[in-house]
Specification:
The protein is globular. The protein has one domain. The chain has 6 helices and no strands. The protein has 81 residues and is mainly alpha-helical.
């Protein structure tokens, strides 16, 4: 499910950041980047910190195994990540 607000609901600063990404890469930023810039006080650093802990923190699984699990779930969800 795609949230319309993540496509176009960014404030002026975040819209400018996404535009610079469009220009520098020559293509539309991927959805996860748009989500991280939608509400950066929630989805920016706090979300990235939580994700880093989940993917790189202490676990019985190696970081590689966790990446493989994430890639498999993404494929089931038809997501390119």
């Amino acid at each position: 499910m795609r949230l319309r607000c993540v496509e176009s609901g960014h404030d002026a600063h975040e819209t400018a950041v996404l535009e610079r990404l469009r220009v520098s890469s020559g293509r539309e930023p991927v959805d996860v980047v748009k989500a991280l810039h939608y509400r950066p006080e929630i989805w920016g650093k706090p979300f990235c910190d939580a994700l880093d802990l989940a993917m790189r923190g202490e676990s019985d699984w190696t970081p590689g195994e966790r990446e493989l699990f994430a890639a498999y779930v993404s494929s089931l969800n038809q997501c390119p990540f």
